[in-house]
Input
Amino acid sequence: ETFSVRRTSFGEGVERTFMLHSPLIEKLMVVRRGEVRRAKLYYLRKKVGKGGRIQERVEETNTPASGAARVRPAAEAPAQA
Output
């Protein structure tokens, strides 16, 4: 298995292919994820500027909304005398 890394260096597009299980690779770290609708992204090589960018995927978290108020259960509510 292989993976490709593409970036712009000094105004020139550079693409490099690496073997996934190569002993030269110590660690892989995903920095950003993109939202695409096809597997082969060769058409992006010809695009310039914003046309060559991929829309970034937003990860959903399971935290409550910041504006939502937290409701305490009745057992924790202080008793009124």
The chain is about 0% helix and 25% strand. Residues 1-30 form one domain. The chain has a mean pLDDT of 76.
